[in-house]
């Protein structure tokens, strides 16, 4: 009779990205009401230097209540490009997750200065979060060359 195997916690696959998961990757989630009934989630750097003026959050999920329906939208600002590749993907996945919990995503607004490759990556990762396919996302992130997220040749 074989001895039971010790469970390796790192082998347990989560279905969702949590705030703690992002925090371990130097990202924080900020939730606040700007003008009720508008609720805003933002993902940004955890250790942004306090002596510098904070730019608009790089990625924001906005949920506002219209007279007839809730409106859920994502806004990605130009400062998003200062995230490392893995941070970009994780933050988009997290915000995508939240958007589907809040209702159907009404719109995605992207800053005009984002590169085309970044725009494609955002679209792809939102698809992952819609499917809740976190284990596949982690497998794809392990590809350091990023080929699974590259639709255009790298220059």
Short description:
By secondary structure, the chain is of the alpha+beta class. It contains four helices and five strands. A five-stranded mixed β-sheet has the order 1-2-3-4-5.
**Separation of the first and last Cα atoms:** 57 Å
DSSP strand content: 15-25%
Largest sheet: 5 strands, mixed
The number of domains is 1
Biggest sheet: strand arrangement: 1-2-3-4-5
Radius of gyration: 17 Å
Order of helices and strands: HEEEEHEHH
Query: What is the averaged pLDDT score?
Result: 78
Q: What low-confidence regions span 5 or more consecutive residues with pLDDT below 50? A: 1-13, 151-155
* Percent helix range: 25-40%
Report the total helices. 4
Tell me how many strands there are.
5
Given the helix and strand composition, which structural class is it?
Answer: alpha+beta
Shape: globular
């Amino acid at each position: 009779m074989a001895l039971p195997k010790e469970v390796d916690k790192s082998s347990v696959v989560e279905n969702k990205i949590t705030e703690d998961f992002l925090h371990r990757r130097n990202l924080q989630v900020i939730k606040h009401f700007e003008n009720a009934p508008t609720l805003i989630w933002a993902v940004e750097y955890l250790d942004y230097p306090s002596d510098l003026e904070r730019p608009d959050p790089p990625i924001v999920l906005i949920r506002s209540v219209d007279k007839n329906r809730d409106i859920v939208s994502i806004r990605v600002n130009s400062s998003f490009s200062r995230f490392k590749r893995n941070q970009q993907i994780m933050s988009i996945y997290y915000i995508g997750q939240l958007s589907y919990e809040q209702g159907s995503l009404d719109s995605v607004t992207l800053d005009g200065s984002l590169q085309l490759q970044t725009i494609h990556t955002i679209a792809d990762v939102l698809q992952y979060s819609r499917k809740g396919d976190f284990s596949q996302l982690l497998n794809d992130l392990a590809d350091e060359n990023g080929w699974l997220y590259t639709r255009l040749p790298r220059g």
